[in-house]
């Protein structure tokens, strides 16, 4: 039998369902891997071995014929932005962790943890994130940074950086991330994974003031289209129990097929979601940030885009240049909305004083912003949403580079400043926009998108090779179509990386 750690998530799920593996031996295998490999990667910030093994034993003790969830015994983890009963939650922030590093321990599961638990998954712990999930890199003042397994001198991206590093390094078979401006797609691209941001409303979520423009949605990070589809099927399940207070769970209906996983398998059999015709794919490097800064597309990013174009044409699709332009009000409106969550974070003055530079600067600006200014920014983004969805509608899929550069060295964003220094906030944010100029607009317009690797590049003559890829943006609720395209690319020999040794 294939070693446990080399199985895909689907293969692992099936082996557990057939009784070829127990939940305990599976959890123990991945816990040993984490103990061995995590010190060099910084993927996990908290490992809950005892909780995980107790959970695995309980799953193994279920009587014959008892109902089992779709991820029965599959090891997973969540970002350190989610509450799991019995585990601490720091939100990647020294303001929450406290002066003695004592983060509060959650008493109950949040919605995501509840969905994963109901699916039968075994949660091994919490993974590294940027402070309050703000950044496209996972470096903070609480724990060591999440590193790219393919080049540990570079970061793993963010905000799902710890999740991506763990999957790419074989510490997890698959992982759920959350994406408010690219936080699934960016680390997936950095680490050479498939990263899917679902359509707004596809995955049940909670409405709150902290996400005034409804940017955030949970999505999978995986090595293959099938693994991503497997986890997406689970994420689309509503959280157990009733909604509470002002929390409203909402989700659009699933795709016509029985599941996203079955849809990928059907596509591999030739039953494509778009029928017999080729897809019309528009290619663009235009960015909504072009109005405020020069976006430079590195040669490696252009090569990855060209490789994606060639592979899509080889699959029979029509790929042409798309002349896309964006409203110059986008950068300012997006910044105002993106920074608002820091203003609503429940921190006292002492805690606020322990925020890192960018988070502290964002909080100060958010607290000075009036409700009218925020409402105007949201209104601008809603107008842009209508314009962009209409423009993208000329194509079945819009294709962009995934990232503008090769993976960034640790400390690059705040280079020249201390991470705790608010003086470096503007440089930090500007470099983030320059590195990932094509992801946030997808959250604003609510469309589904996926990043997938298309080639391996060497950023320096004597450096390691790193994955580079593309972003595919679909029509409304077209996740099944995007996953089918990824499956086509995989069938051409484009696959995710093997777990790093």
Write up this protein:
The chain is an alpha+beta fold and 501 residues long. Helix content is 37%, strand content 14%. It is built from 17 helices and 13 strands. It has helices at residues 9-18, 23-41, 49-60, 94-97, 111-118, 161-168, 185-191, 225-235, 260-268, 299-314, 330-344, 349-352, 357-368, 371-392, 425-435, 440-445, 479-491, and strands spanning 44-47, 75-79, 122-127, 147-148, 151-155, 175-179, 194-197, 217-222, 280-283, 318-321, 397-401, 449-458, 465-474. It has an eight-stranded mixed β-sheet with strand order 6-8-7-12-13-11-9-10, with helices on both faces. The chain has a three-stranded mixed β-sheet with strand order 1-3-2, sandwiched between helices. The chain has a two-stranded antiparallel ribbon with strand order 4-5. Helix 8 (225-235) packs antiparallel against helix 17 (479-491). The radius of gyration is 21 Å and the shape is globular. The chain starts with 8 loop residues before the first helix and ends in a 10-residue tail after the last helix. Mean pLDDT is 93; it is low at 243-257 and 495-501.
Count of runs of 4 or more consecutive helical residues: 17
Spatial shape? globular
Strand proportion: 5-15%
Q: Which residues sit in consecutive blocks of at least 5 with pLDDT less than 50? A: 243-257, 495-501
- Count of individual beta strands: 13
> What characterizes the major β-sheet?
8 strands, mixed
Give the mean pLDDT: 93
- Backbone structural class: alpha+beta
| Rg calculated over all Cα atoms | 21 Å
- Strand order, biggest sheet? 6-8-7-12-13-11-9-10
| Residue share in helix | 25-40%
Q: Distance between termini?
A: 20 Å
What is the N-to-C succession of helices and strands?
HHEHEHHEEEHEHEEHHEHEHHHHEHHEEH
């Amino acid at each position: 039998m294939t070693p446990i750690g080399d199985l895909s998530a689907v293969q692992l799920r099936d082996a557990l369902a057939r009784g070829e593996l127990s939940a305990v031996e599976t959890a123990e295998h991945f816990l040993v891997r984490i103990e061995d490999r995590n010190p060099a990667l910084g993927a996990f910030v908290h490992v809950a071995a005892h909780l995980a093994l107790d959970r695995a034993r309980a799953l193994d003790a279920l009587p014959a014929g008892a109902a089992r969830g779709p991820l029965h015994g599959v090891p997973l983890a969540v970002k350190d932005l989610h509450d799991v009963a019995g585990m601490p939650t720091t939100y990647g922030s020294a303001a929450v962790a406290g002066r003695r590093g004592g983060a509060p321990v959650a008493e109950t599961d949040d919605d995501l943890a509840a969905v994963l638990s109901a699916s039968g998954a075994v949660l091994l712990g919490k993974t590294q994130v940027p402070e309050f999930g703000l950044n496209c890199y996972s470096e903070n003042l609480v724990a060591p940074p999440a590193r790219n397994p393919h080049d540990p001198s570079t970061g793993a991206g963010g905000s799902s950086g710890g999740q991506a590093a763990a999957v790419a390094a074989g510490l997890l078979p698959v992982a759920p991330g959350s994406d408010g401006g690219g936080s699934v797609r960016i680390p997936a691209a950095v680490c050479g994974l498939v990263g899917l941001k679902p359509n707004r409303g596809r995955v049940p979520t909670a409405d709150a003031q902290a996400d005034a423009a409804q940017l955030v949605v949970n999505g999978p990070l995986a090595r293959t289209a099938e693994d991503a589809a497997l986890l997406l099927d689970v994420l689309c399940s509503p959280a157990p129990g009733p909604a509470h207070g002002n929390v409203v769970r909402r989700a659009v209906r699933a795709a016509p097929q029985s599941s996203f996983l079955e849809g990928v398998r059907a596509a591999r059999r030739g039953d494509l979601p778009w029928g017999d015709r080729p897809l019309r794919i528009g290619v663009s490097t235009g960015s909504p940030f072009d109005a405020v800064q020069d976006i430079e597309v590195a040669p490696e990013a252009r090569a990855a885009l060209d490789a994606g174009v060639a592979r899509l044409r080889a699959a029979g699709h029509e790929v042409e240049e798309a002349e896309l332009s964006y409203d110059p009000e986008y950068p300012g409106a997006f910044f105002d909305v993106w920074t608002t969550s820091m203003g609503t974070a429940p921190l006292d003055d002492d805690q606020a004083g322990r925020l890192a530079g960018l988070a502290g600067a964002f909080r100060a600006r958010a607290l000075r912003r009036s409700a009218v200014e925020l409402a105007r920014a949201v209104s601008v983004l809603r107008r842009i949403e209508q314009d962009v969805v209409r423009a993208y509608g000329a194509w079945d899929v819009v294709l962009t580079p995934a990232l503008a550069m090769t993976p960034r060295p640790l400390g690059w964003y705040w280079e020249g400043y201390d991470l705790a220094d608010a003086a470096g906030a503007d440089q930090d944010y500007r470099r983030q926009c320059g590195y990932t100029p094509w992801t946030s607009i997808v959250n604003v317009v609510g469309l589904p998108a996926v990043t997938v690797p298309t080639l391996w590049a060497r950023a320096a003559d004597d450096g390691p090779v790193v994955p580079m890829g593309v972003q595919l943006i679909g029509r409304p609720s077209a996740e099944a179509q995007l996953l089918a395209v990824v499956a086509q690319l995989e069938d051409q020999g484009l696959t995710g990386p093997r777990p790093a040794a």
